[in-house]
Amino acid sequence: MATRDNGSGEPETPISTPMTTPMSTRSLKWDEAAGALERPLLRQRGTNTTSQIAVVGANSCPIESLDYEVVENEVYNQDWRSRGKLQVFQYQALKWVLALFVGLVVGLVGFFNNIAVENIAGFKLLLTSNLMLQNRYISAFVVYMGCNVVLAAAAAALCAYIAPAAAGSGIPEVKAYLNGIDAHSILAPSTLFVKIFGSILGVSAGFVLGKEGPMVHTGACVASMLGQGGSRKYGLTWNWIRYFKNDLDRRDLITCGAAAGVAAAFRAPVGGVLFALEEVTSWWRSALLWRTFSTTAVVAMVLRGLIDYCRSGNCGLFGKGGLIMFDLGSRLPTYTTTDLAAVALLGILGGLLGALYNYLVDRILRVYGLLNEKGSRCKIVLTVAISVITSCCFFGLSWLAPCVPCPADLAGKCPSIGRSGNFKKFQCPDGHYNALASLFLNTNDDAIRNLFSGGTDTEFGVSTLLTFFTTVYSLGLLTYGVAVPSGLFIPVILSGASFGRLVGTLLGSVSGLDPGLFALLGAAAFLGGTMRMTVSVCVILLELTNNLLLLPLIMLVLLIAKTVADCFNKGVYEQIVRMKGLPYLEAHPEPCMRSLVAGDVVSGPLITFSSVERVGNVVNTLRRNGHNGFPVMEEPPFSQAPELCGLVLRSHLLVLLQGRIFTRDRVKTGAAEVFRTLAPFDFAKAGSGKGLKVDDLDLTEEEMAMYVDLHPITNRSPYTVVENMSLAKAAMLFRSLGLRHMCVVPRTQGRWPVVGILTRHDFMPQYIRDLFPNVLPH
């Protein structure tokens, strides 16, 4: 039997009888030479060949679709009828309680990540600095590289052996989940554990990566665990959260978690809300906006209180890194037409380099994908190799850099001795500092702060900035893709800040803007050129710098950079989503879909159930395939002619069979008989861990010969489209409603009531390209 994917991970519903292509002019092609219509473009192949496997983190795993549609069957109706005012209030109140609790937990996790990185990296840098002061240069290099290698190997081992899905930033996976794509490991508790500790180890190892991207994934994992009532696999379940046993409510809560992750990473609550709206979520509404904003407000308050506590010296080496706002100085930015031209030039260059960055990331990730397929050991070896290269570059280039005399007005602050500071002494004599060491031998947050600092026009020379930019730009490309939790925000900000400060230094005689301001605008240009976000990045940078007067310049450079970069390729996260094989539904369908109809892409044969079906037929069908949705047909003697009764889900069928509500004769039993044995919450979707499987059913031969009434669990109002509806219109309807299945019905009477089922994979360009090579060329 030919099958195709049904809902993004499972083979789709087959079709019982051979289908003919709808003969509409929309699926025909005009032959100008012959002056007539050619044969239909469609050549039915019978199967959907799109991939049912996608890369999640650094691991290939099966994918499925999420059921965002409300299944309005008798079980659902009975559940809502049974709820009193107290239960309805409890459901509404629980949404707010969980959203606020997500903010609290994510705020605590974000603070823990930051304090751990500051202490681990601070201890490593302090030890290296002390050895340098003792003129033990070789020992300092060995200790520095040894610490980095150990930390990198530990982070890679966690990802390789415990949770491969935790590798990378996690933003593409969260973006795909909120679009309706699920994989077992995307938001698993093990992924959360490795995401937190792997990110700490990876950032502390000195890689050119950040913890900001992983914080988005961490926030989503926290929200998922709370929303589904814990984890059945690890024995952590809470029945009082039973109202959230559906994908729709979990989606809203995970959106709050993703926004909270950005707020915790940047201390930017408004930027977190806008990031969720602009980048990760596919569905938005005003109620979710208010709830998400409340979540990020809790994060901001938690971080504020904890940071004030740490300023008294109670948090070890916790300094001014990470969560402290960057300071550009108190000088008011005044600019002329020449300054605006310089900013526009920076935006153009940032867009070009950002587009190049995305292109190179795509190529490098494909190579790393081939290497990661060779096993866990190869992942660890690759990570350690990149760590050695990074350590050698940072230490070696700093060693080769010349010493610069300290400014006369900073006699007491230059050179700085210790783990951080603008003027690193490194190997220089007294009264001198090493500019490259001030950038390389610091945490990434401190390096950004040094670049953003105002009033330090002569601190970093052209050669220093050029060397730092080239190194960070290259190592950022090489690092992203190794088996450690890694974000792209910090590498892009570092590259953009150094490039912007370089441009500001070169244009110092033409522009009167501070080099620190150019560094900020360069970071904005690179963010706009790589991630293609405008509003959220603008607000995040304003919250980072606490300077609203920079708004016009940031807006200008972001718009120019995004416009230029869009001429070459898509944003980095969109590219990674596509490269990972995640069947992401875009907001705007492919133009060629307007020349096709829904019936052109369905394939067969179709499997259906009768409204009262023999138990053996249901069990055998579930065992033969992995479909998740089946049309239910009302046939004589229950109706005069075959008609579509609705759609039944696989999970509901398994619960009903487990309840053994069978009859010896083919008769309707009704919902009352079901509720004598089962409760509405028995049909709720299980949390992470093992759910009910077909092999868990232990039915006797006598029971297999009985009948089961499917009316109580059948969705009587599934979304349907006529077979001659434009495929583009069907795709927009499918995405906007968050569907998993869409029934295609015939446009004429006298035919079988269902032509086929559309699922996510039927709208994928790869599938359409196979069917229509002359409509959607490679």
UniProtKB/TrEMBL annotation:
Q: Which CDD domains match?
A: CBS_pair_voltage-gated_CLC_euk_bac
Please name the PROSITE patterns in this protein's record: CBS (PS51371)
Membrane-crossing ranges are 96-116, 137-163, 183-209, 253-277, 283-303, 340-360, 380-401, 488-510, 516-541, 548-565
Membrane topology per record: Multi-pass membrane protein
The record's listing under Pfam families reads: CBS (PF00571), Voltage_CLC (PF00654)
Arranged from A to Z, the UniProt key words for this protein are: CBS domain, Chloride, Chloride channel, Ion channel, Ion transport, Membrane, Repeat, Transmembrane, Transmembrane helix, Transport, Voltage-gated channel
Q: Where is this region: Disordered?
A: 1-24
Compartments, as annotated in UniProt: Membrane
* InterPro entries membership: CBS_dom (IPR000644), CBS_dom_sf (IPR046342), Cl-channel/antiporter (IPR051280), Cl-channel_core (IPR014743), Cl_channel_pln (IPR002251), ClC (IPR001807)
- What GO annotations for molecular function exist for this entry? voltage-gated chloride channel activity
Q: Which family does it belong to?
A: Belongs to the chloride channel (TC 2.A.49) family.
Name listed for the protein in its UniProt record: Chloride channel protein
Give the species this sequence originates from.
Answer: Eleusine coracana subsp. coracana
